[in-house]
């Protein structure tokens, strides 16, 4: 990467853009809401069941000016979801400042593994065992979404729920490939522990991105 491009990426003025698309938010609190998704490349958290492994290597995704990303996004929706990869790999300040300056609602989907940058209207924290979230992300999360792959994830979910604020909404979401096995466990768990809610990847049932 050229030095000047690298410097702009380091400042968050450019981001490795993997894809962007207008769709329906399928998961969590805002499920069913039309939103424009900005998927930023780069993640070293390493979830073995990750369904966007193509996002991991930032170098294969073109560094793109945040001004261009915002100019495009604002044509589609008032609600913008920044996802990855792990968006907090990068300085989210310039992107979110521009999105906010256009009056847009700005959401993030993050593992919380890196320091919180940017200004957010909604923080969806989906913590991962391999790289736990920073204290600031726990404190500011609006929803906690724990992916359930096996029974140990219920223990992990409770551990994580103890670290977020009282107003944070708690979700258990089946890992897609294990959904047949895990959904009945989640249903029983939520009925026994009603502070939790079920989240499903409804976009996959709707066959949309
Ligand atoms: S944090 Fe997200 S993008 Fe990164 S490996 Fe895990 S599921 Fe994939």
Automatic annotation (TrEMBL):
Which domain of life does this protein belong to? Bacteria
PROSITE patterns under this entry?
A: RADICAL_SAM
Q: Which cofactor does it need?
A: [4Fe-4S] cluster; S-adenosyl-L-methionine; Mg(2+)
Known EC number(s)?
Answer: 4.3.99.3
Q: Could you state one GO biological process linked to this protein?
A: tRNA queuosine(34) biosynthetic process
Q: Where is the Radical SAM core domain?
A: 30-209
Q: Where does substrate bind?
A: 24-26, 39, 83, 209
Q: Name one GO molecular function term.
A: carbon-nitrogen lyase activity
> What pathway does the UniProt record associate with this protein?
Purine metabolism; 7-cyano-7-deazaguanine biosynthesis
Family, similarity comment: Belongs to the radical SAM superfamily. 7-carboxy-7-deazaguanine synthase family.
Quote the function comment for this protein.
Catalyzes the complex heterocyclic radical-mediated conversion of 6-carboxy-5,6,7,8-tetrahydropterin (CPH4) to 7-carboxy-7-deazaguanine (CDG), a step common to the biosynthetic pathways of all 7-deazapurine-containing compounds.
According to UniProt, the name of this protein is 7-carboxy-7-deazaguanine synthase
UniProt organism field: Mangrovimonas yunxiaonensis
Tell me the gene name. queE
């Amino acid at each position: 990467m050229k030095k000047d491009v690298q410097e702009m990426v380091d400042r968050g003025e450019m981001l490795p853009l993997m894809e962007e698309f207008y769709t329906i938010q399928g998961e969590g609190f805002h499920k069913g809401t039309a939103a424009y998704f900005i998927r930023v490349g780069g993640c070293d958290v390493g979830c073995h069941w990750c369904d966007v492994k193509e996002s991991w290597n930032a170098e294969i995704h073109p560094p793109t000016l945040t001004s261009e990303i915002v100019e495009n996004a604002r044509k589609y929706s008032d609600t913008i979801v920044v996802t990855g990869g792990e968006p907090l790999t990068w300085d989210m300040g310039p992107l979110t400042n521009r999105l906010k300056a256009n009056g847009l609602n700005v959401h993030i989907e993050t593992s919380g593994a890196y320091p919180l940058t940017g200004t957010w209207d909604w923080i969806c924290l989906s913590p991962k065992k391999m790289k736990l979230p920073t204290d600031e992300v726990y404190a500011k999360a609006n929803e906690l979404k724990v992916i359930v792959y096996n029974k140990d994830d219920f223990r992990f979910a409770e551990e994580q729920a103890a670290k977020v604020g009282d107003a944070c909404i708690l979700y258990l979401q089946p890992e897609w490939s294990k959904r047949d096995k895990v959904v009945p466990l989640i249903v029983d768990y939520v009925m026994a522990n009603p502070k939790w809610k079920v989240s499903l990847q409804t976009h996959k049932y709707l066959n949309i991105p």
